[in-house]
């Protein structure tokens, strides 16, 4: 069995925990950012509306910065102020509003879960973190804890990227912070720390600390409200622990939360030695041929063909210009031929490869894919009858294109 972590990695002193809670909450009350979902959660008397408002914000904030989310959130809550309103919306409407926010499956799962609450749970949100995670599609452990603590005052902790960074620095946790064993320990700590009378505020304070002061690079340690509890700061100020550890220090080489011996403390990094993560896998490199098909519309304005992506996978259900994944290192002539064959299947008539005009390349970085779009255009003189057996497709003006559920990558194209 692995050795248990020594006491200095844990929050085992009740007096220290109480002081940390008080200092963090006092700082949060003074310094918290004015965010629309916080205002709704603080003023909305109806528990289900409060839960819905927090839920939408937490889903949007996954993998997306606060500054980007604010406008999307305000437009979403204006269009669908209640869970019941969202349940009646179409997926197309959801995708259109979500366009540009990224990770599009989030919006789809949010709507699916809203419909489930209305149809199977009598319109009432689950009230505990356990039930939220069990009953709502797309709601994981963190999101469930956030909704339950902020909306329903359940005394449960939360662990997100900001909390991981704060806790790892507070307690010098240098083991791989993405490993399940370390994540479980961090959840244990979060549940010990959470303030029982103000759980939602405490959890938001811990996340706010990571987002504004205890940032990945150049943290503002001098302004930190809990700096006296920070083991990483103490180590930065006073150096390594003494050669002979006291009863609260780690044993040699067998602590499950210490940095591995192969990654010693780097004094130049200070507190940013923590957290440690496993090296990221390099993004997958992909090339895709994309053709902007253009025709003259009935009112004289140009129209462009867009087709709908499959209902699952990357950018599920969004609209795009006809596109075809390419093998790496394909010659341009061969790219044109493959794209021409692909377009011929759409239009039911031959397409000459030489008629495709090369426009340029567009690079778009997804979280795990480095995507290059090789962009061609083709002007059509006559009308084209599209095969109804293929994916849904439609002709749109430029304004209609930008109002459709299209990805940021396609807008670049």
TrEMBL record:
Signal peptide: none annotated. Coiled coil: none annotated. Its EC number is 3.2.2.31. It is found in: Mitochondrion; Nucleus. Its main location: mitochondrion. InterPro entries: DNA_glycosylase, Endonuclease3_FeS-loop_motif, HhH-GPD_domain, HhH_base_excis_C, HhH_motif, MIG/MutY, MutY_C, NUDIX_hydrolase-like_dom_sf. GO terms for molecular function: 4 iron, 4 sulfur cluster binding; 8-oxo-7,8-dihydroguanine DNA N-glycosylase activity; adenine/guanine mispair binding; metal ion binding; oxidized purine DNA binding; purine-specific mismatch base pair DNA N-glycosylase activity. It catalyses: Hydrolyzes free adenine bases from 7,8-dihydro-8-oxoguanine:adenine mismatched double-stranded DNA, leaving an apurinic site. Belongs to the Nth/MutY family. This is Adenine DNA glycosylase. It comes from Certhia brachydactyla.
């Amino acid at each position: 069995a692995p050795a248990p972590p020594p006491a200095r990695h844990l929050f085992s002193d009740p007096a220290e925990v109480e002081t940390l809670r008080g200092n963090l909450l006092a700082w949060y009350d003074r310094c918290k950012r004015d965010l629309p979902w916080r205002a709704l959660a603080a003023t909305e008397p109806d528990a289900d509306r409060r839960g819905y408002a927090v839920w939408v914000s937490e889903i949007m904030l996954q993998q997306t910065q606060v500054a980007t989310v604010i406008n999307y959130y305000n437009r979403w809550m204006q269009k669908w102020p209640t869970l019941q309103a969202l349940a009646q919306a179409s997926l197309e409407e959801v995708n259109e509003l979500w366009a540009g926010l990224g990770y599009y499956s989030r919006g789809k799962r949010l709507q699916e879960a809203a419909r489930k609450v209305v149809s199977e749970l009598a319109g009432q949100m689950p009230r505990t973190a356990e039930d939220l995670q069990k009953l709502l599609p797309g709601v994981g452990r963190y999101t469930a804890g956030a909704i339950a603590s902020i909306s329903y005052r359940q005394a449960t902790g939360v662990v997100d990227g900001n909390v991981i960074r704060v806790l790892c620095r507070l307690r010098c946790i240098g083991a791989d912070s993405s490993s399940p064993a370390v994540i479980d320990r961090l959840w244990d700590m979060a549940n010990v720390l959470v303030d029982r009378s103000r759980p939602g505020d405490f959890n938001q304070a811990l996340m706010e600390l990571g987002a504004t002061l205890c940032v990945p690079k150049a943290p503002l340690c001098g302004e930190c409200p809990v700096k006296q509890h920070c083991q990483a700061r103490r180590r930065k100020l006073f150096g390594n622990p003494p050669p002979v550890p006291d009863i609260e220090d780690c044993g040699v080489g067998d602590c499950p939360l210490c940095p591995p011996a192969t990654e010693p403390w780097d004094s130049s990094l200070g507190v940013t030695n923590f957290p440690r993560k496993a090296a990221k896998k390099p993004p997958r490199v992909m090339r895709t041929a994309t053709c902007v098909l253009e025709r003259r519309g009935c009112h004289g304005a140009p129209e462009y063909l867009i087709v709908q992506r499959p209902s699952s996978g990357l950018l599920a259900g969004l609209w795009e210009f006809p596109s075809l994944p390419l093998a790496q290192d394909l010659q341009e002539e061969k790219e044109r031929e493959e794209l021409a064959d692909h377009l011929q299947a759409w239009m039911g008539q031959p397409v000459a490869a030489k008629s495709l005009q090369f426009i340029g390349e567009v690079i778009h970085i997804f979280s795990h894919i480095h995507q290059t779009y090789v962009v061609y255009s083709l002007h059509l003189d006559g009308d084209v009858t599209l095969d109804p057996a293929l994916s849904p497709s439609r002709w749109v003006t430029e304004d209609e294109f930008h109002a459709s559920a299209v990805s940021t990558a396609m807008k670049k194209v």
